[in-house]
């Protein structure tokens, strides 16, 4: 087995992992990082498209119960069948009940309000004021969370991401206070659900989840965990798509013109963006048996990083993979929303929100430009890819 240094805490790897991905795919498609987590646990890195795709779909040999007692919330993403199947059924019921078609007009209104606010001055912090605000407002409203809790909400959402990163090997000292934030969030969702039981049924996700709980389909803890899974999973991911997408439109005038002239290509743009800059770069699984792959035996119970971001740059699947190509025929084969039993239940909502948001960007692109005084700042969070800050100049 080739020795390739992967240091999860190295900023270079977090900000530009793509050269490392290439070496991994070519030289060590199953790569052991000895004692790679902060607790000194070994992990294995799978980096080729076929292997990542197969592992995501193989629920029998690759378990989602990765946390093993540490920060082990009853969230769908931490569970295998049959528990996962039950939780997922509740989520699908709650989520699909009023999704896409019924939400379109309301989501459009939220987007119009947020963008109109952002254009009021001559400079705007696009990530903070637009792309972080939009998913929080949409998912938060659907969960019945009051808008004046926006700041808490961001903190809580970040805490859940931190929990995953710590479970994957990040030193907890890098994210102080995340456990307290998590508990606070759980308690808040519980209070909200209890209060909701006394109110008339409102047609939103929290209402649907409370109904599921009252029907005995999930416990109070599971309800709270479900609600904050939505917030955590939907916030940073969508924000990274909407922020990175704006950056791309402002940096590539030919692409921007093509989309302005053909807004119906927005779905293609979203898929190719998700392929090349997957907001979720990797996810975790644990093997349930010894697995032989590319001459390596991954032992039973081993932690595996499935590197979606690398799978998307695998030339075995996507020719000339580092080129952004909106006309790429198989771009829809990306794993940006996952695959198999844990495929993202928020995919339809994200597609709706991002399609409407990009279409709202097109008519204002000629009023916006990147601030030459302040270069965009990439996010350096583990496993996530996107922009932390992006200052834009606004002309009247
Ligand atoms: C661009 C936006 C989004 C991206 C790129 C994304 C990506 C993903 C991916 C890759 C997974 C699978 C992870 C795995 O198998 O380990 C996933 C699962 C999940 N996503 Fe999303 N997501 C997005 C938006 C959303 C939204 C808006 C919501 C909810 C409001 C959401 C809720 C969830 C949940 C609850 C899961 C876990 C499902 C399960 O374990 O069965 N996501 N997402």
TrEMBL record:
Protein origin, superkingdom: Bacteria
PROSITE patterns in alphabetical order: CYTOCHROME_P450
SUPFAM superfamilies per the UniProt record, alphabetical: Cytochrome P450
Keyword Metal-binding annotated: yes
Keyword RNA-binding part of the UniProt annotation: no
Alphabetically ordered keywords of this record: Heme, Iron, Metal-binding, Monooxygenase, Oxidoreductase
Pfam families named among the record's database cross-references: p450
Family as reported in the entry's similarity comment: Belongs to the cytochrome P450 family.
Classification via PANTHER family: CYTOCHROME P450 YJIB-RELATED (PTHR46696:SF1), P450, PUTATIVE (EUROFUNG)-RELATED (PTHR46696)
The name this protein goes by in its record: Cytochrome P450
Organism: Streptomyces boetiae
